[in-house]
Amino acid sequence: MEQEQTSQEEQIRTRAYYLWEQAEEPKGTPDEYWDQARADIEREAPPVESGPVSGEPSK
């Protein structure tokens, strides 16, 4: 799971930098680009299917 988090963080970092490069002057704050990048990445991520919670019997 830690690898997955690192991968997502790297995707966000890369997307935020791209957004910053494409922005016109004056550029916004780093947090603006980070938040936008995170929202973009989360929106593009496939939904996670959840199974039964550990310890609960499946029906």
Protein topology:
Blueprint: H1 2-22, H2 30-44
Helix pairs in contact: 1-2
Overview of this structure, please?
This protein has 59 residues and is an all-alpha fold. Helix content is 61%, strand content 0%. It has two helices and no strands. The mean pLDDT is 83.
Mind describing the biggest β-sheet?
none
Low-confidence stretches: none
Q: What is the helix fraction of residues, given as a range?
A: 55-70%
- The ordered H/E elements are HH
Radius of gyration: 17 Å
The computed structural class is: mainly alpha
Distance between the termini: 28 Å
Total number of strands: 0
Apparent shape = elongated
Query: Proportion of β residues?
Result: under 5%
Number of helices: 2
What is the average per-residue confidence, as pLDDT, rounded to a whole number?
A: 83
Structural descriptors:
2 helices, elongated, 59 residues
Quick structural overview:
The protein is 61% helix and 0% strand. With 59 residues, it is mainly alpha-helical. Helix 1 (2-22) packs across helix 2.
